[in-house]
Amino acid sequence: MNGEDFEKKRRELIKRLIREGILRDKKVIKAMLAVPREEFVPANYRSFAYNDTPLPIGYGQTISAPHMVAIMTQALNPDPGDKVLEVGTGSGYQAAILAEIVGDSGHVWTIERVKELVEFARSNLGRLSYLRRVTVIHGDGSLGYSPAAPYDKIMITAATPEVPEPLLEQLKVGGRLVAPVGDRYLQRLVIITKESDGKIRREYSIPCVFVPLVGRYGFKYDEF
Ligand code: SAH
């Protein structure tokens, strides 16, 4: 402990996001109050954990800004008991938020391509006892994770030129997928629902900027 009142800062940030009209959903508010973001950032960034900004987590990657986590989670609208797939584990923070919502009857599978971040996320999630509800996988998440498919909800937390076909296949009928779709520099949040006849419905939400999804169905190169 370094004497900082993280809990107070967390409550203040969340109050601000509610006041600004960003945070609206009760289960997301509850989850964001429960998960300590300071536990998911490198030690030298702990003091900034409750600034509403992305922070570096090493390997050219970032933990998303709290407002973006709020917007993405609300767009995904996970329910208790859901099976959720996250592509792009990073720090594990978003996976912890999803785990809070799906509860003990649900489960979160999350895939990360950078081995060191898989270990970083596992240790963060383990310290806070989330590994009962979260499985962290090392691999190319643009291929999804077929052993646990199909999923009720899928969230991609890296920029992708198109929603990878395997992920659409691994989504349940009636399921929902959220992803930042666009080029390397600017994307738009896309919300996909798979309808009863298997038809894919797309809604376009806010513009956003994410680090790239690098893989078979993502961007083909990595500048880092
Ligand atoms: N959700 C994270 C932040 C994601 S940053 C959090 O809460 O901290 C995006 C992450 O996607 C990075 O860690 C990056 O390494 C990872 N990534 C990029 N391409 C990937 C791929 N094909 N499969 C899995 N992870 C990938």
Entry keywords:
224 residues, alpha/beta, Rossmann fold, two-stranded antiparallel ribbon, 6 helices, binds S-adenosyl-L-homocysteine
Outline of the structure:
28% of the residues lie in helices and 26% in strands. The chain is of the alpha/beta class and 224 residues long.
Percentage of residues in strands: 25-35%
Shape: globular
Average pLDDT number: 96
CATH class: Alpha Beta
Structural class: alpha/beta
The value of Rg in angstroms is 16 Å
CATH architecture descriptor text: 3-Layer(aba) Sandwich
Compute the number of helices: 6
Strand order across the biggest sheet? Answer: 5-4-3-6-7-8-9
- CATH homologous superfamily designation: Vaccinia Virus protein VP39
What does this structure look like?
The protein has 224 residues and is an alpha/beta fold. It has one domain (3-223): Vaccinia Virus protein VP39 (Rossmann fold), CATH 3.40.50.150. The protein has six helices and nine strands. It starts with 5 loop residues before the first helix and ends in a 16-residue tail after the last strand. The model has no long low-confidence stretch (mean pLDDT 96). The structure holds S-adenosyl-L-homocysteine.
